[in-house]
Design a protein that fits this description.
With 425 residues, this protein is α/β, with parallel strands linked by helices. It is built from 14 helices and 17 strands. The chain folds into two domains: 2-57 and 364-420, Urease, subunit C, domain 1 (Roll), CATH 2.30.40.10; 59-360, Metal-dependent hydrolases (TIM Barrel, Alpha-Beta Barrel). It binds guanine (GUN) and fe (iii) ion.
Length: 425
């Protein structure tokens, strides 16, 4: 496949490249090259000409709660723990009903597609049947996803609290079934967070991580009351991060931890050693008054970081709005922490594309050998009135754009249409 258009990407943090009126050649899922002039060997071949559209890497969201997509914007007068009790847990309990689950999952996957998120790591719910439905629908959607069955066997309402052995057995069944039947959707171990999982459950999940060489996702040090609670639950383990490590849940190079706000230096050193990806969820952290992740400090330390929506702690699954919120929050944080310089828009864009996508391997930038995930942005009526540079066009899309500006979406080299139609609702 040969595409023509103006390409913009961020192959590394702090590095942005623009190729105006250029050609990108793919073979199957993979990029062969991006060229300012089309090499002679491709002359005469069919070209998809996107005219004056701007083509950017598609978004990757490494921390989102699929069932909570119906709760966007609800309940932010509370902080984390009461918000979970009052709003989140009752909603998640409804996913024991498979009809309801199926309708929400389709709308969830449609929403990701619509807003340009082609890769994701999602928490589902505790319910085995509903998780499997999401995995099958994700496979059918063409998006690339990691989906986790949530594990919780303590401090949960009766409607969600699992028997420890059943939780482990259901998890292992989903691991095996997804490996046998799915290609584009993977399983990710998903202990909800330390307060929801007993030591025995965490230990069993750690063993599954090792046996099946699985990725892991969870929450870490989001809220001060939560951190205190964890210290009380595990008085023999010095820090929250070490609780996960004690039970083998910092699977090296394969773990995503969301929030990571209130950490000690020892904890960030351990996260660096374990090559954990830290998901910064700016919208969620503002909505639930959780705190401000010292992202600049983590980036300087060399920690792996990305920005993520955390919907419905985040009020939208839209990664463009997640990017701009990350920049805006970093500016306010800078006023009280002058050593933490604000995030530039280009840096935040990198963290939403190549930064998160690195968890999936070579994807998230237009480099030879990388999988081709992209969004084609068409100038809107307003955008077309004033001459703009490609970067200015990206700025306007991120700050004030929406799905009407996205003319096409590619995931792993394939043009994707809306996954699920109206008639299927
Ligand atoms: N910690 C444990 N569960 C959750 C959740 O669903 N959302 C957020 N933001 N934090 C959590
Ligand atoms: Fe979360």
């Amino acid at each position: 496949m040969i595409l023509k258009g103006t390409f913009l990407h961020t192959p590394a943090l702090g590095k942005m490249e623009v190729y105006e009126r250029a050609w990108l050649v793919t073979e199957g899922e993979t990029i062969v090259g991006l060229y300012r002039t089309l090499p002679p060997r491709y002359q005469g071949m069919e070209v998809t000409d996107w005219g004056d559209c701007l083509i950017i890497p598609a978004f990757c969201d490494l921390h989102i709660h699929a069932p909570q997509i119906v709760n966007r914007g609800i309940g932010y007068d509370e902080q984390l723990l009461p918000w979970l009790e009052r709003y989140t847990f009752p909603t998640e309990a409804r996913f024991s009903q498979q009809d309801f689950a199926r309708r929400v999952w389709k709308a969830f996957l449609n929403r990701l597609w619509e807003r340009g998120t082609m890769r994701f790591a999602a928490f589902a719910t505790v319910h085995k049947q509903a998780v499997w439905q999401l995995m099958e629908l994700s496979e059918a959607s063409g998006l690339r996803g990691l989906v986790g069955k949530v594990n919780m066997d303590r401090n949960a309402p009766d409607s969600l609290r699992e028997d420890t052995d059943a939780s482990l057995a259901d998890t292992e069944e989903l691991i095996c079934r997804s490996r046998a039947e799915l290609k584009k959707t993977g399983f990710i171990l998903t202990p909800r967070f330390v307060p929801s999982t007993t030591s025995r459950l965490m230990d069993g999940l750690g063993q599954l991580a090792e046996r099946y060489q699985l990725p892991v996702q969870s929450h870490l040090s989001e809220n001060r009351s939560e951190v205190k609670w964890v210290a009380g639950l595990h008085p023999d383990i010095p820090t929250y991060t070490q609780v996960y490590d004690t039970f083998g849940l910092l699977s090296k190079g394969r773990t995503i931890m969301a929030h990571a706000i209130h950490l000690t230096q020892e904890e960030t050193d351990l996260l660096e050693e374990k090559e954990v990806t830290l998901a910064h969820c700016a919208l969620s952290n503002m909505n639930l008054s959780s705190g401000v992740m010292p992202l600049r400090r983590y980036l300087k330390q060399g920690l792996r970081c990305c920005v993520a929506s955390d919907a419905a702690g985040g009020n939208t699954a839209d990664m463009a709005k997640t990017i701009t919120a990350s920049v805006q929050l970093s500016k306010l944080n800078w006023l009280s922490h002058p050593e933490q310089t604000p995030l530039s828009l280009g840096e935040a864009f990198y963290l939403a594309t190549r930064g998160g996508s690195a968890f999936f391997g070579d994807v998230g930038a237009f480099l030879p050998g990388f999988q081709f995930d992209a969004l084609v942005l068409r100038p809107s009526e307003l955008d077309a009135l004033v001459e703009r540079t490609p970067f200015e066009r990206l700025e306007q899309f991120l700050y004030d754009g929406d799905d009407r500006d996205i003319a096409a979406r590619y995931c792993a080299g394939t043009l994707l249409s809306r996954p699920f139609g109206e008639e299927e609702r």
